[in-house]
Amino acid sequence: MYPFTFTKAASTHEALNAGRRGGRYIAGGTTLVDLMRETVERPETLVDISGLPLREVTVTERGGLRIGALVRMADAAAHPKVRALYPVISEALELSASAQLRNMATIGGNIMQRTRCTYFRDVTADCNKREPGSGCAAREGHNRTHAILGTSEACVATHPSDVAVAFAALEATVHLMGPDGERRIACADFLLRPGSTPNREQAIRQGELITAVEIPALPRPLKSGYLKVRDRQSYEFALTSAAVALHVRGGVIREAKVAAGGVGTVPWKLPAVERHLIGERPSEALWTAAAEKAAEGARPLEHNRFKVELLKRTVERQLRIVGGTK
């Protein structure tokens, strides 16, 4: 690990000043410390923001939900309002990492985490995320766990977050505070596809701080859930996953929110699946037909072609679990 300085921010103002000068924010540190130990990340200054007042979960005036950036994953998953209004978020969090990590890691840190691509974490391998212009070893290497959606010639790494998939499905908004004031950005625009600049992973500006994630109010009743398919049951990243939320009234699907994880360079919203569902009555045939559209645009690599079919089956199964049939 390389030498660095460490400071603890006593206020949001102090944190923003340190961030503006190039400091890297840290709270739980469950990802950043690992990357520093592996010399993938080499920040000169760490700014501890764990004491900032960003730990509340509140219902918004319109009936949505606002989760503070420093709410621990375990606390968010167990919060009664999260469980009651958006169980897909609780389930995604509970299927993430390990119990020990969930007790430390924060919501803001979770969506800021970097890829789990083994080539990214191996400093001897070519990786455009780590060293722009060096190449992408995964394209011709062992790429079983890599993305089939949203890839580019420069990068095929997946985004590892489970809860970000739920946020993408629910069309959440990320709240930011920085030297130029406060702003909001859709979760779908906050996490960036690699394109030709895979080293830029989030639409966050120098010195900005995530303050909260807000989930908009959705029609009631709303049924939702998260399904994760992985090589082992505990402490493993998704091969595929599906976050589904459905509003059914009068026997007809009025709203459908669907996103996939483990298959995209970012949490992958599935608008074609959603469009196929809206206005239809739940049925086995509908779930199958809608799920067929989940892998549209997929570009599989040598070792991850199985993900095309696995994605469709995962989406179909979760539609059936959440929507049922009558």
TrEMBL record:
Write the record's keywords in alphabetical order, separated by commas. Oxidoreductase
Q: Which Gene3D superfamilies match?
A: 3.30.465.10, CO dehydrogenase flavoprotein, C-terminal domain (3.30.390.50), Uridine Diphospho-n-acetylenolpyruvylglucosamine Reductase, domain 2 (3.30.43.10)
Annotated ranges, domain FAD-binding PCMH-type: 1-220
Q: Which InterPro entries match?
A: CO_DH_flav_C, CO_DH_flav_C_dom_sf, Diverse_Substr_Oxidored, FAD-bd_PCMH, FAD-bd_PCMH-like_sf, FAD-bd_PCMH_sub1, FAD-bd_PCMH_sub2, Mopterin_DH_FAD-bd
- Output the Pfam families linked to this UniProt entry: CO_deh_flav_C, FAD_binding_5
Cross-referenced SMART domains: CO_deh_flav_C
PROSITE patterns hit by this protein: FAD_PCMH
Looking up SUPFAM superfamilies in the UniProt record yields: CO dehydrogenase flavoprotein C-terminal domain-like, FAD-binding/transporter-associated domain-like
Q: Name one GO molecular function term.
A: FAD binding
The protein here is known as Xanthine dehydrogenase family protein subunit M
State the organism named in the record. Answer: Streptomyces cupreus
